[in-house]
Amino acid sequence: MSEETSAASRGRPRDPRADEAILRAALELFIEHGADATSIDQVAKRAGVARLTLYRRWPNKEALLIAALDRARDIDDLALYRQLLDTDTEPAEHELRSAVTTLLETFTEMVTRTDMRRLIARLIGTASSHPELLRTFWDTYLRPRRELTHAALRRAIELGGLPPGTDPELLLDTVVGTALFPSLLYPDPPSEESVRERVNAVLRQLGIEPPA
Q1: Average pLDDT taken over every residue of the chain
Q2: d(Cα 183, Cα 194) in Å, to the nearest integer?
Q3: Residue 7: is its pLDDT beyond 50?
Q4: What does the angle CA 106 – CA 208 – CA 154 come to, to the nearest 5 degrees?
Q5: Span 36-63, pLDDT tens digits
Q6: Measured between alpha carbons, how far is 85 from 152 in angstroms, rounded to an integer?
Q7: In the predicted model, is pLDDT for residue 20 greater than 80?
Q8: How many CA atoms lie within 13 A of 75 on its CB side?
Q9: What are the φ and ψ backbone dihedral angles of 63, each rounded to 5 degrees?
């Protein structure tokens, strides 16, 4: 086989710009319409590529949506969470308290954003018919952030920055639930400011002073 024939059989190299456009289009359409109402044709049209381009990369719609949700790991900056957990220095109690409350507020801001709220609503709505989509989002986006948050809360408890006996899992679920429940289920979603006030009220009841 000649080099020309070998190169042709391998096909053209993948264009990362096309990949990015396809995954962005797939995620947008999933948020807008859900899994069942999103088609390969729609994704190809929005991304400005041919259907064949999609099928060369992903064998079916489900695989494409999983890849698009995997991309959601980049929706915000995970480095912020890691920075708040820098173990090279031993923070003072007030610094650790500030770091924990900032981290919780960052999580709250994330779940009250319109795009994230709509994405989570779609994932909940398709949990029974497409459980692999929710699993992908959990594994690639939610779990890494929860693990870092848990570690921060545990350190805060050890160093006296949080009340003794605080349950990190319960605290995190309480804060996130306080923000997420009205954002998803109220007929008129509350503003980000009102959700933040609710979360701050919960933190104060738990003996945690929110950031100014």
Answers
A1: 79
A2: 10
A3: no
A4: 75
A5: 999 999 999 999 999 999 999 999 999 9
A6: 6
A7: yes
A8: 25
A9: -65, -35
